[in-house]
Amino acid sequence: VVAKLRSPGGCPWDIKQTHESLKPFLLEEAYEVLEALDTQNPQHLREELGDLLLQVLLHAHIESEKQTFDIEDVITDLTHKLIRRHPHVFSATGGAKLDSEQVVTQWEEIKRGERSTESDSILAGIPVSLPSLLRAHQIQKRAARVGFDWETPEQVFEKLNEELEELRAVAPCLPDSEPSLQEPETNAAIEHELGDVLFTIVNVARFLRINPEEALRKANNRFTARFQYMERQGDREKKPLGEMTALEWEGLWEAAKKQEATEGSHTTVTLETRDHDHG
Questions:
Q1: Residues 218, 184 share a domain
Q2: Which terminus has fewer CB within 10 Å in the chain: N or C?
Q3: Does one domain contain both 228 and 193?
Q4: Beta bridge partners of 271
Q5: For residue 150, what are the contacts with CB-CB under 8 A and spacing of at least 6?
Q6: Residue 110 has what pLDDT?
């Protein structure tokens, strides 16, 4: 079907697509799969997985037109990689019995052995294009695997408090003007310290075995749902939100939270149950 769509006389939209033009759609479809997982609706998930698969097929077909590789090559390479990196499962002798942590260590050792690039850095291969929270999470996990890590969660919370204090130390110098009118040095200092705070918060999430990207995504969803509830209540009461007092805002916010609790939450917690990435 994809070949037909991109063939002469096929679909004009599909024909003109390139790897570059398809990038936003790949990301969009991946996030729609995440939303489908949150709904716990199998039919919805089935549909969104199909849409995501279409993006994979399109990218593979673009390469097949260049005679570099096709979707069968992609599947073959993936199959070989999974077998190669799971000797404890696919070894002819049955392999050693490993726990999940040993599997992660073995995976990384095999992956390092496969690497034939100029860089032998443990951080090599983490895509720069990942969302920043997710990339920070991957960086920290990789560093922790070679022992560069905190020993206890308490140490991470202490570090977070330290970074917050450093942010507070530069915040008082903020003028009343718009950020664009602030001194460049002030903006740079605040950005630097805020970045350290965010990076440390990701470390907190990692120690708590929570995916920070998922946690923030779900927090965004909660805020959106509550705010839209307040908008609906404002419409019913014929009172624009912009004309409400702080006390009225607080009352509506609490009502939104109660409504959320009444309806129940179908959100599942995303734990870091398997700690290696399949890159």
A1: no
A2: N
A3: no
A4: 210
A5: 156, 159, 203, 207
A6: 80
